[in-house]
Amino acid sequence: MSRTSLSATVILLCWLAIGALWFSSLSFRDLAGTDEGRYAEIAREMAQSGDFVTPRLNDLKYFEKPALQYWASAALFQAFGESEFVARLWPGICGFLAALLVWYTGRRLWGATAGLYAGFTTVSMLWVMGLSHVVTVDMGVSFFLTAVLCGFLIAQDDKTQATSRRKWMFFVWAAMAGAMLSKGLIGIVIPGAALVFYSLIYRDWITWPRMEPLWGPLLFLALAAPWFVIVSMRNPEFAKFFFIHEHFGRFATDQARRTGAWYYFVPLLLAGLFPWTTLLPSLTRYAAKRESSSFQPNGVLLVWCSFIFLFFSVSSSKLPAYLLPMFPALGLLLGRYLEAAQPNVLRKHAMALAGAVSVILIAGVTYLLFFAKGSVRTPVEYHYQASYWVIAGALGMIVCAALAARSASQSRKDWSVMQISLGGVFLCAVLMDGYQVLSPLVSAKNAAAAMTPYLKADTEVFSVERYDQTLPFYIKRTVTLVNYVDEFNLGQEAEPHKWIPTNEAFALRWNAAPNALAITNVKTHQKLQESGLPMTVIYTDPRRVVFKKP
Asked: For residue 367, what are the contacts with CB-CB under 8 A and spacing of at least 6?
């Protein structure tokens, strides 16, 4: 174990700079896309209704995910008000705490330098920072799974005393309950399968009796089970939908329409590990070496990462965020590997990083200037506006990589790791902030602003043949769905009076309403116009049309 050459002041200032970039980026963008609107709105409705048992989306029962993140965000809304910053605060906190926990774990197990490297590499990974700034449940479950992993490594370490081991194992069981309440069964499937495969591969069975096999599961059930029991009692349809449809159905079938090739996660792993991607081959070889101790922490980390990658690769449902729990484990491996590596390893890595970002930047600018044409849904001017942010972030990363190469050539590994990490955080923050230029396309905030002057207590709001997930959050009320099902099937079957199944029935309701607003897509708007539906258009953009009753 070696001591870091960075002073406590430098380390503190670095983490403060990272924290400033990290948390300031939570508020810069409008809520965008399906996930951000969906999970922010469920929490908003929960805070408004006070019902913390039955999650609802657009006032319809919604059981695709457990309730922990909804509870956290609803409580934050009640405490600090409803805003983009508060909507993203829970995943933002979870991501930052995961990196700090990795730092602490590496420091406790392998010393100050390895811990610092582990924390810096984790916090700067594209997937960790990026998904900490999007309202999804993935960062929450990844934080709790990281806590499971880190607690297990500390508890089972050969140097850990029996009394301390017991406390850490209780921490592990509690964290598994948090993971279960964040996203369901993967909260126990990933840790359980990783433990089984680790034991089989490394012939290490001594960890099993040291896991508090009696009181640990009881603690897990005491924390995780009550909500599942209560929500099932209040909603008889919950258990079958949540456990069968949302878990086994999604894994075994393509019912969610999220299919992908067997190599789907390969480019996502390489991109998500940025700016440390070039170290992956060496890191894998390092992790595969057996250690002299009876407990094999590198083996646990390698099995953990391998199982997550293979498990979701064979699944019939694939989304980019599924790999997220891998990256804190990779950060722990990177911390240990970089401490043992020669400075020249970092020098070559930093030079390759600067070169790769330069090539990608030149290729991107060339494409934009000479080949980009845009589309009806995404006009080319949006690409031009976004490019300024991309260029600024890339240049910052290139400068940091060049400085890191210089530091490594002077055998200052600590500075080199810190500079690459700062460059990665800066690049991701700038890219996330730059995404705001696409807000008119991917967010309904502007449409909501156009609707607000016409919203009265008796105004009905319809969403025809589409559902813009961010709209209810911004107009602070739910909408009536028209001829749209998708993820609302269960809720619509349970409460059929809350939606309109056909455009013909909508026309009757529209004509009878004293005040009404509607939002739809361009194609459906043309169809409604041709049918003679009375309307006055009050807002348009390339993807949506808003109209009111004349």
From this structure: none
For 68-93, write each residue's pLDDT tens digit.
999 999 999 999 999 999 999 999 99
Residues 6+ apart with CB under 8 A from 44: 74, 77, 82, 472, 473, 476
Q: Are β-strands 516-520 and 480-482 bridged in parallel, bridged antiparallel, or unpaired?
A: unpaired
pLDDT in tens, 245-257: 777 766 665 665 6
pLDDT (tens digit per residue) in 206-218: 899 999 999 999 9
Count of C-beta atoms within a 10 Å radius of residue 197: 17
**Tens digit of each residue's pLDDT (9 = 90 or more) over 131-171:** 999 999 999 999 999 999 999 999 999 999 999 999 999 99
- The strands making up 480-482's β-sheet, listed across from edge to edge, are 499-500, 480-482, 460-464, 516-520, 544-548, 536-541
In whole angstroms, what is the distance from residue 34 CA to residue 446 CA?
A: 16
Q: Is the pTM of this model over 0.90?
A: yes
pLDDT at 257: 60
Which residue type does 482 have? V
Q: How far is CA 469 from the centre of its chain?
A: 17
Between CA 260 and CA 268 the distance in angstroms is: 12
Continuous H helices in 273-340: 280-288, 297-314, 326-340
Reference 37, options 129, 133, 135, 132; nearest CA is 135
Cα 508–chain centre separation: 42
Q: What is the dihedral of CA 191, 193, 197, 198, to 10 degrees?
A: 10
Q: How many CB atoms lie within 10 A of CB 208?
A: 11
Spatial separation of the C-alpha atoms in residues 196 and 205, rounded to whole Å:
9
DSSP string, 45-56: HHHHH---SS-E
d(CA 127, CA 391): 20
Q: Give ∠ CA 189-93-99 in degrees, rounded to 5.
A: 70
Residue whose tokens read 């050969």: 158
**CA quadruple 185, 187, 188, 191: dihedral positive or negative?**
positive
Cβ neighbours around 164 below 10 Å, total: 13
Spatial distance between the Cα atoms of 277 and 309, rounded to a whole number of angstroms? 16
Sign of CA dihedral 51, 71, 77, 444: negative
Q: Mean of the pLDDT values across residues 392-403?
A: 96
Answer yes or no: is pLDDT of 291 > 80. Answer: yes
* pLDDT, tens digit, 9 for 90 and up, residues 8-53: 999 999 999 999 999 999 998 999 989 999 999 999 999 999 999 9
Residue in 518, 531, 182, 516 with CA at minimum distance from that of residue 325: 182
Q: Measured between alpha carbons, how far is 243 from 241 in angstroms, rounded to an integer?
A: 6
Q: What share of the chain is helix, strand, coil (3-state, %, to 5)?
A: 70, 5, 25
